[in-house]
Amino acid sequence: MRRKFLQLFEKRDQHPFIPIVSGLPRSGTSLMMSMLAAGGLEVLTDQLRTPDDDNPVGYFEFEDVKKLIKGEYSWLASSNGKAVKVISTLLPYLPNGYHYRIIFMRRPMKEVLASQRKMLINLGENPDKISDDQMAEIFEKNLQQTERWIHSQSHAARIDINYKQLIANPGPLVAEINIFLGSGLDEDKMLGVINPALYRHRSTK
Fold this sequence. Notes:
Blueprint: H1 2-12, E1 18-23, H2 29-38, H3 74-77, E2 84-85, E3 100-106, H4 109-122, H5 132-151, E4 156-162, H6 163-168, H7 170-180, H8 187-193
Parallel strand pairs: 1-2, 1-3, 3-4
Helix pairs in contact: 2-8
């Protein structure tokens, strides 16, 4: 049913679009960006944040994205349809006038918090500056705001990708992503990027 919907969507919406990869921090956005790049989609990144132990494949970030909150988005006009990572907090700051196809990464909150904590420790920061409960509340409110924004946008389409399912059984999800973005990606190369060994903060449920 979902595949049929995506096929109908693709036939109906022929506007040029900007692929957006989004989600909470530590939800698998960098993995998705690396998969899209491997699949043949150009990505918008400045490579200023280099790979490390927390993200061996790289972060695929673009610093100018942070300027969205200031109302600065001139870089969008020259993105030429390249995929760009926009963390969920910044999604509502995307301007009107563009068509977006958003791949939104979903990961259990416990895993997000555990991964975030580990990254802060590796960066030499205090992971207890904000408690897990407080951080979870902030993240949940952010997700609610993001949901409201997406539902209010006629120029934005979204597909949700479950990180756990992407690692466990990636084939069907990669096929859906390919259709969602126009069916021009190399699915085998996308699958080749996935390394289950890097899934290091697994919840029991």
